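Input set for joint prediction.
Command: fold jointly, output tokens.
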Amino acid sequence: MPVSPARTVAFEILLRVEREESYASELLHSDRLAELSSRDHGLATELVMGVLRWQSLLDQRLAAASSQKLERLDDEVLAALRLGVYQLQFLSRVPAHAAIFESVELVKSARKRSAAPFANAVLRTIAGAGAEDILPEHILTKISKSPDSITLARNAAHPLWLVQRWTERYGLEAARQICAHDQMVPETAIHIHDNQVDAELVAAGVELSPGRLLSAARRVLAGDVTGTCAYREGRVSIQDEASQLVALLPGRGEMILDCCAAPGSKTALLARRNPLAKVFATELHPHRARLLRHLSRLPNVHVVAADARHLPFSCAFDRILADVPCSGTGTLARNPEIKWRLKATDLHDLQSRQIAILKSALAQLAMGGRLVYSTCSLEHEENEAVVEAALDGTVAFKVADLKGELEQLLQSGEMCWEDIASLLAAPYLRTIPGVHPCDGFFAAMIERG
Ligand SMILES: C[S@@+](CC[C@H](N)C(=O)[O-])C[C@H]1O[C@@H](n2cnc3c(N)ncnc32)[C@H](O)[C@@H]1O
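tokens >
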């Protein structure tokens, strides 16, 4: 009997994530998956994301049942075992015999036939031991009661070094909330670019509820937004609410630069909010610059493939967004593989690049202009430290307190989250996943005086 399409695809994606440093969420939306039924697509997504979210906990189970060290297993065997143990422990609707059989078949189909009896024995041992303590409801209680970083990291399947630094910076309770949030399927948020879209989406079977931070945001409770006309025509975009909020911060301008722009969700929001402005969107990587092409239907957006450290403009901009490449630790619920790849030393490499981009962007800022620096990282090195380093020794620029801007957004009705103080780590914006109903974002507003 062949392995089911959903498990075959999940297996291939897990191998690519491991070997190529690819992002699971991008692979799960690639053309290759268009052939899958929506049910199979849903199962493949659940398997890939589940395995990546719970990887260290799954590996603990495998190590306890395995006669061999996991580090010595071939990638294919380990990926098939992780898929098997995830289904055994987290998907009570999948019968144990089916989970075991399909993982063993995956091992065989990957030409690792000699490892099939081993995989079978490991998974049977785990199935025999039961799943009581690891089912999601138990584990979330364990996360919320973890008394220290070490226990929290183990219960919540996170690397200890990340949990330790969040506990030091934000406190143990916030670290528990971040970890619990990262381990759940995140809500899908959308931005509505025109008010008629609501009725259109509902008619297309999409169930919505109001945004929590922003009036033009909605949360998708059920249905497929990507299959609607409004999505294809760009009148609605899928975008986390904190990301939408960051795109509102540059405000109104005439000459706008978005210097790290792909895939373009913030560019689209900037361009639609400033229809009379010229919006330049630069992106380093040509394949990612291609992602920006769908924005070319907005008449005021001009896409330029360029390195933001050496911007090719002789003009000045009155509004700039520098949404720089970062570790992404504020988005682990959507990108769980990041937590297994990232090393503490990476933060310093990222920081050097972020400082170079910010300095280069500041050089393009007009007198009286405003630049917003942002990341989806929870790490000080990529946030406050970058702003301080880039402004060190300059007198032309000052950091503005974002409180005033948030108050204006609340007054204008664009923001509906009333507890402004909770969003601020003065003078900066700071959202924390699990504490706030969104991804973790940081933003600083810099003005040229
Ligand atoms: C955080 S993402 C931007 C997300 C985007 N602002 C959005 O909201 O859709 C950072 C982007 O910067 C790009 N990038 C990385 N280094 C760059 C550089 N030196 N110059 C320009 N873009 C760069 C990355 O390829 C990535 O697409």
